[in-house]
Write a structure and sequence with these properties.
194 residues; alpha/beta; five-stranded parallel beta sheet; 5 helices; 13% strand; globular
Length: 194
């Protein structure tokens, strides 16, 4: 946090707070200090890796606490719909994108009904990016598409890109396909794909 504080002196820095425990640590650390990053609250839209439950009873209360603690430095909410990597079709990706958008706008609406200003609503995952449509009010303010600009083999497997559309490739030589012992006595293959 000390490094973030130093960065915030001369740069615009955003800190994602994705748990109540994390919120307490960040609030206590930055209390009374001049340099403070922008604060974004993480929402779990289905990946279940981080973020607050969008339907949780304490979610809006926590967002309210972050706004109270950080004032104008509190900016809004963000999610990473990484569960979309398990999608089996473009139709499913489109559905996840739509649900993610609607879920985040529900959290925004509930927060605003409680008197909290939500300036930013952020979403992001490469597979859903081509299917992420905004509302007429442009309620989604940022999208973080990850590798979308470059594309990679994951996007090929999901049917989003073709191999010749990927800007990121690795060229290697197969050196051995035999089974080998790796650390811990586990057996694995040692090879590079050409």
């Amino acid at each position: 946090l000390n490094n973030i504080r130093h960065l915030a002196r001369e740069n615009t820095v955003a800190l994602l707070v994705s748990s109540e425990d994390g919120g307490k640590i960040v609030s206590e650390y930055f209390k009374g200090k001049g340099e403070c990053p922008n604060i974004i609250v993480g929402i779990d839209s289905g990946l279940h890796r981080e973020g607050l439950d969008p339907h949780g009873e304490n979610t809006v209360t926590f967002i309210q606490q972050m706004q109270k603690s950080f004032g104008n430095q509190f900016k809004g909410i963000s999610t990473h719909e990484g569960h979309c990597y398990r999608a089996r079709s473009r139709r499913e990706l489109k559905s996840i994108a739509r649900r993610t958008r609607d879920l985040m706008l529900e959290v925004k609406e509930r927060s605003e009904q409680a008197g909290i200003e939500i300036k930013e609503v952020q979403v992001g995952a490469t597979p859903t990016f081509p299917h992420m449509s905004n509302t007429h009010n442009h309620d989604i303010t940022e999208a973080h598409p990850g590798t979308y600009a470059l594309m990679d083999n994951t996007q090929v497997k999901l049917g989003i890109a073709k191999p010749n559309e990927c800007a990121l490739t690795v060229l290697g030589t197969v050196i051995d396909k035999r089974m080998i012992d790796t650390s811990g006595g586990k057996r694995g293959r040692l090879f590079l794909h050409p």
